[in-house]
Specification:
Blueprint (H helix, E strand, L loop, with lengths): L5 H4 L5 H44 L24 H11 L6 H4 L2 H21 L4 H22 L17 H11 L4 H10 L24 H4 L11 H8 L1 E5 L5 E5 L9 H16 L28 H10 L4 H28 L4 H4 L11 H25 L7 H52 L10
Antiparallel strand pairs: 1-2
Helix pairs in contact: 2-3, 5-16, 6-13, 6-15, 7-13, 8-11, 10-11, 13-15, 13-16, 15-16
Amino acid sequence: MTASGDGYEKIDVTGNDAELQKVIFHQHRKLDELVDSSKQVKQQVDSTISSSEALLRSLGKSLPERRRLIQLDKKPVAQLRSWQEITTEGEAAIPDKVAITDLLSNQEIVSVEQQLMHLRDEFDLQHKLDRLDYGIAGIAGVLASLVDIFLVKMPTTKELLGGSSSQGGTLSDFFKNHLRNKFTGQEIRELEENNWVPYDASTSKNLTEYVTGLGPRSHRFHSIGHDPILGFIFGVKDIICGTMTTIDSKGKFVTQTISGAPVGMSLFDALGRQIGHLKSDIGTPAGLPVPFMSLLGLIQVGSFGEKGRTVGELARTMYAQGYDFGHFLAMSIPVLIIEVIVRTFYFLKRLSEGHGFMQSIPINVPGEPHKPKLQTMLFMAHTIATAANAGKVTFTSNPLAINFPQWIWFFKSAMQQLKWVAWTKEEERFAHVQKKLDCDWENVNDNLLAEWSVFEEPAIMIGQY
């Protein structure tokens, strides 16, 4: 936008602002006319005085002395017009719209643009990462990558998709062994007996509708009620309704009534039974599937490996090879490392810079300003860790090396960052500038009200020289 004002002339101002602009423009024009008129009168008066003084001197007369200030017996009163009268006069005098360029000179417009640019730069500087911020994000991302590569690794498995076999990662084996030792065999049997659910059929033998791919080793992958998160929706629904909800190996969604299953259980009883059943399965060799991974069975596209598996078939094979909830917990450690390191050091750094507790707390609190710098640091760290995991998968040629939680967190962070860059940043920058302008306008308005109250006095004393 140039100082010529072409862009400003396109701004459509309506309502009170348009009315105010007309008043300002009209009063400004009247003031210019008064100034010009007063200059002409002053020139005429000065010329007349000079001529009179010259005439008096030529006649040998002395010039009169300046008269002293005298008090007028009758005091003139200047009546203050109402605002409505002033605006009506402005509307009548200026029928057309008033542009910003009618009110400000090119030099004034340039000055305003410079001030606005300064406010925008001020906002950008507040959210710009410094070297320490980059260092925190980089260290967190690298540390998480090292943990994923050397400690999480992948489940103990034979080669898959032509990749090398794996002896299992330290963290993965630790969580799996911990879950398997959580309950004794007797405790698991008691949990199974006391928490029977209708969605636990391991084959299609006694089902009214055949479920392709359903088997003892894979039925928990196909039955959505076994999902650690989705199970509290689909599993509870199945318990209450006496049904079984599955996604078969062909990507077909199948819901069927289970013969002999009790119906009408209360919601809280169904929740209790759901928890009990998941506890009975979590410590078994097959374990529970990774949260939401059962939904990949709906994606019957792609061709991976020598057998040309689809995404859904590959996910099913990964679960059968040990890519279960225990491994999911191990994969979550790198994500947790990033979140803890970045958020902790962000909090400490903000406090050391003199910010208050609420402005430093490493989460977005309702009613408090958004924290895009924290969001950017998390995005950078998760990007580093995700890139390292992608390299790990490529190097091993084994899909079991995919860090599912890390990719989920990366996409979540990427969407937030995209939203910030594409939309939110400009909105918040505009709000930052507008807040400053509103504050300045309030100061101007207060001064105007103060001046207005002075002119609202009943009379103005006018003296004479």
